[in-house]
């Protein structure tokens, strides 16, 4: 609510209280009474200050979240200095992130994905934000900011361009160069410019078409309209591959795997973790791998940390592996060194080559 003449109703506090009281009610849902309350966040511009309407709305929202956090069901949060300053910090961080994306202020780590014998098949680009005061910020901490402020598409674009450019210059091993995988969360196939943006990045980087893998979560791949599917098909035709990320989480269903326009399925770490000792995780992993194989998809196991997990996964026929057992994500220079060697040690390759 925007209220300019709140003095007439007794001031902002009373107005907020009245609104909260009006919304406090009992409604019947499926024959049961449900108590409904509202949390209200309140912000008023300082008389002399120069506050934009958008900022005022954010302060009110921050105050509402503050009210929610402090129990206050049906509570009222007022944008005090503390709330305003934390909302202002969030705004600053958002502005800094925007500048970092525009000014090449982000960096990429790469994590190798290996075959059963340790051959490096691809490397996944993972973005980090080296912040001058806060240190290296992991994606889990700044992706939500990017999402809230509509920066996800720009971020994806930056990563796509940077990763294709770096990968184009990767060393070859026995005449072949490994592929680079890029996560997409804001630049999606439904985007009218999807095909041209991806094509341009590949051409400008001078990367071979079959050396790019695009990772999308399942929800970005279901129920795509025909033009989006056509854009993906066009890219696939030229050699680009698509992977379903985090498969097994969210609303994944095995039946739906058949409809997903992707060549690769990445089995989420949630199932990999327990695969060696939890029968339920083992069953899920095996079902996903069997199903994927029957549908002509390849599989990658994510978050492989132990030799036991690796052996079990290899036993059920997983095609490729990614995780700390083989390598943590490494900076550009480190990945070049791994790629020049062409392979990483696996428990299997160690056993095969025997003691020296
Ligand atoms: P993801 O796509 O599932 O990436 C794998 C994450 O698992 C990475 O975390 C990686 O460091 C971590 N990981 C790899 N191996 C292991 C392991 O053996 N054990 C454990 N515990 N973790 C492992 P990171 O780099 O923090 O990325 C987190 C998520 O942020 C990614 O999950 C992805 O969803 C998103 N993300 C990262 N980079 C980008 C990007 O460039 N663009 C977009 N849109 N999203 C990104
Ligand atoms: Ca991924
Ligand atoms: Ca994943």
Helix/strand class: alpha/beta
Query: Whole-Å distance between the termini?
Result: 75 Å
Strand content: 15-25%
List cofactors, ions and other ligands: ligand C2E, calcium ion
Parts with pLDDT < 50 across at least 5 consecutive residues: none
- CATH first level of the largest domain: which class? Alpha Beta
Q: Percentage of helical residues?
A: 40-55%
Cα-atom radius of gyration = 25 Å
Looking at the structure, the CATH topology of the largest domain is TIM Barrel
CATH hierarchy: architecture of the largest domain:
Alpha-Beta Barrel
Mean pLDDT across all amino acids: 90
Summarize the structure.
With 356 residues, the chain is of the alpha/beta class. It contains 13 helices and 14 strands. The strands form three sheets. Strands 5, 6, 7, 8, 9, 10, 11, 12, 13 and 14 form a ten-stranded mixed sheet that branches.
